[in-house]
TrEMBL record:
This is S-adenosyl-L-methionine-dependent methyltransferase. Residues 67-165 form the Methyltransferase type domain. It comes from Crucibulum laeve. GO terms for biological process: methylation. Keywords: Methyltransferase, Transferase. PANTHER family: PUTATIVE (AFU_ORTHOLOGUE AFUA_2G14390)-RELATED (PTHR43861:SF3), TRANS-ACONITATE 2-METHYLTRANSFERASE-RELATED (PTHR43861). It holds the Pfam family Methyltransf_12. GO terms for molecular function: methyltransferase activity. InterPro entries: Methyltransf_12, SAM-dependent_MTases_sf. Residues 1-22 are annotated as: Disordered. SUPFAM superfamilies: S-adenosyl-L-methionine-dependent methyltransferases.
Amino acid sequence: MSHSHTHGPGEHHHGHSHHDYTNANQEHYDKTATEYDAIPGAVERSQRSVEALRDAYPFDKSSTTVMEFACGTGLVSKGLFPYVRSILGVDISQGMIDQYNKRVDAEGVPADSFHAIRAELKGEDGELDGKKFDVIICCSAYHHFSSVEEITRILVSFLKPGGTLLIIDHKPTSREEMESIWPGKFSDQVVALPGGFEEEVVQKLFEGAGLVDFVHKDVPSAKVIRDMELFVAKGVKPLTSGV
């Protein structure tokens, strides 16, 4: 993963651009994977995320194939699975993948329609056995990536022509507010872009990766527990595309 400089919110935290966020996140989540679902707000946030994704895209149980990138323990995948044909979870943390696949085993569904693998995607030919997807989702993970431009380009390369990228992350939020909502979760070691994302920044990011039909909507606010304000952004890969 390159460490090209990203523009936009959180830039001033980004002076240490040679820090290896990929390894730091992998180590952090390998250690904390078994406790993740117990974080206050994690389950509720995943439920709100599923609601927002379903509102943003007409998933079809008989046909829609999905990749969830940076899938974590699979809370969002599990919520979405009843509405899609298949989901592949991808994460760099083996600890998270193990928790995800335990969850799938407990559901008793066929592994070819719902499972996760550990992979660090590069957007190269032949990755994931050449699979392409109708929809790729990435929820509450973009602020961990040192180059959101590169990640977006890579994800778009795994979309079928006409496929849709859906990102959920938080709107611009002060460091103090984030720390008060999720104490200790925004360490500089694992969060490359802590400040959240302005709509224009996300739109530029999507258009820069060749996506069209940009839509940006609010995710329903948390009712039970305090959380940051989230957005869902959607972009479509053109049917004829040089991307």
